[in-house]
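We modelled the chain as a single entity of 272 amino acids. Its sequence is:
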Amino acid sequence: MGRRQVVRHGTLNPAFGGSNPSAPATAVLPDPARRTLDDVFGAWQRRDVRTAVAAFSADGAFVGADGRTARGTAELTALFAAFLGSARRWRFVPGDVVVTPAADARTANARFRYVFAIARDDGSEDERPGFVDVRFRDGSLLEWRESGDMAQDTLTIDVTTTDDGNTQVYVLHGSLDIATSPSLRAALLDAAAQRNHRILVDLTQLEFLDSTGLGALIGAHKRAIEFDGSIRLIAQEGQILRLLRITGLLDVFHVYPSIDDALADDARLVGL
């Protein structure tokens, strides 16, 4: 393998807008957990404290990014009353919801990225990105836990070129989502416009992938085809490969378990 170049590293400033809040895509989250999450976002939009609290189980907990915890109906009511009753303008914009493993049929777990913006006194907005991990039991929220760890909101793209100069390999680390996908989209579209050029995108080091990230890959794939090139993906068993399988993208992309397999066009993974 030839030269190595780090294309991008760090937190990208998300562009977002719309109402307060904007409901995320929850197609992969089963009912009734999906309805419960929709109820929470709807209640926040209406500043409806009672409905927001009712979405939680009796012993449910809300853990903010600052570590502040409210548990049980009384504490949740006080927390949401202060939050939703504030006159200060704010927005909570969630991204796609991705289901994570649950213990049994009564429970459901999921994660989504968010950007919380609150108005400053001078009229500007203080944007605070992070992740939310949610746990459900019998359809009710058992725990809402926010993480404001900026380290999770990054995408690193390592680029290498094969010795013959015909193939570029992009190894992705971190999160490919609404905030970070524009950098990958720009890099891949530029590379894909080079006629008769092969591109490999290694997804095995990714921690999180949502529909905007998939959209960046699909857009680059279409551009490569226009210029007589190709994009091959690298994915191994786990959440990323399941997402490719569920969305039918194993039939769109050539997907391989390793970079060596992709270079040799061997052991291609297929949809079930």
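As a brief sanity check on the tokenised model: Confidence is low (pLDDT under 50) at residues 2-27. Residues 154-264 form a domain with the Transcription Regulator spoIIAA fold (CATH 3.30.750.24).
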